[in-house]
Amino acid sequence: MRRQSGLSSYMITIVIPLYNKADTIQRAIDSVLLQSETDFELIVVNNGSSDGGEKVAEGVTDPRVRVVHQDNRGVSAARNRGIEEARGEWVAFLDADDEWMPTFLATMKGLRCKYPDCAVCATAYRRCDDSGAMSDIRLSSIPDRRDFVMDNYFEVAATSDPPFCSISVMASRKALQEAGCFPEGVYQGEDLLTWARLATRNKIAYCVEPQSIFYTGDNYGNGIPKRIPPEDDVVGRELEKLYRDNREMESLPLYIARWHKMRASIFLRLPSHSQQCRNEIALTRKWNPRSKKLNLYHCLLLIPYPLRMNILKNLL
């Protein structure tokens, strides 16, 4: 570990993984430098960028900001490098194409002080699409309070939008290390697996007020997903293993079903992936026999692909 002694345990380390985001990295860094809470360090992990984004980060003169470089090994490896380099006892993450609101760190510090038994702090977030339209996430199964201890994470995550994401969470470095940090070599769902591992081991302090902005981009050009799920479903297998070790987590099967349903929805939108979709439908039904839309998915698989896509644009 590369760590300086004598630094405040209350300082927060912020990790931004950077890969070819020259057009947005300055916005992300600026949103950190504008925080009302100023006791932090920012580590930008240049993950083999080739578009000059690393030079933008290196041009920031604030002494709290430093840039480390490595070959491109994926976003998990970049986040893990940031955790390794962290000098603070708490680590927050921000992606290079997203941003925080000015009170993000202050909110995290408030949660940490109010709920000292929680090793994970998180907030809601806003989505921003390509047109600039903002939308809040949908949450269910939560108390009617501004903040609370989320002791039913898997129930909330299975019945809502993801309650937090990689830009709206902070965890103790110790908790991250005990959870295995981020799984390297996994390129979809790697963060969801990390949150699930953290949730089985730690209490989560949560604030419903959005404190970050997630720029969604165009994930479905012409209705077709740009990111195809890998057929080797490492995340699915690891979630099943997590359940075998934590059967007392009653809502974890619903969370696993939600993962497979998401994969089925993507395969449904892809030509020549009908069998993969059927496999994911079967796995969804295994973990949650009452899952909605599965019969609809089955019916849509029987329809020629062009017609199916027209229907999906109107229904899903």
Q: What structural keywords apply?
A:
Spore Coat Polysaccharide Biosynthesis Protein SpsA, Chain A, disordered N terminus, four-stranded mixed beta sheet, alpha/beta, 316 residues, eight-stranded mixed beta sheet, 2 domains, 12 helices
Radius of gyration (CA) equals: 20 Å
Order of helices and strands: EHEHEHEEHEEEEHEHHEEEEHHHHH
Summed up, the helix count is 12
Please state how the strands of the largest beta sheet are arranged side by side.
3-2-1-4-10-6-11-9
- The CATH architecture of the largest domain can be named as Alpha-Beta Complex
CATH superfamily of the largest domain: Spore Coat Polysaccharide Biosynthesis Protein SpsA, Chain A
Structural summary, described in words:
The chain has 316 residues and is α/β, with parallel strands linked by helices. The chain has 2 domains: 12-215, Alpha-Beta Complex (Spore Coat Polysaccharide Biosynthesis Protein SpsA, Chain A), CATH 3.90.550.10; 220-315, no CATH class. Helix content is 39%, strand content 18%. It contains 12 helices and 14 strands. The protein has helices at 25-33, 53-58, 75-85, 104-114, 153-159, 173-178, 190-201, 234-245, 252-268, 274-287, 294-301, 305-315; strands at residues 12-18, 40-47, 65-70, 90-93, 99-100, 120-123, 126-128, 134-136, 147-149, 169-172, 204-207, 212-215, 220-221, 224-225. The chain has an 8-stranded mixed β-sheet, sandwiched between helices. Strands 5-12-7-8 form a 4-stranded mixed β-sheet. Strands 13-14 form a two-stranded antiparallel ribbon. Strand 2, helix 2 (53-58) and strand 3 form a beta-alpha-beta unit. Helix 5 (153-159) packs parallel to helix 9. The longest helix is centred in the last third of the chain and has 17 residues, at 252-268. Residues 1-8 have low confidence and may be disordered.
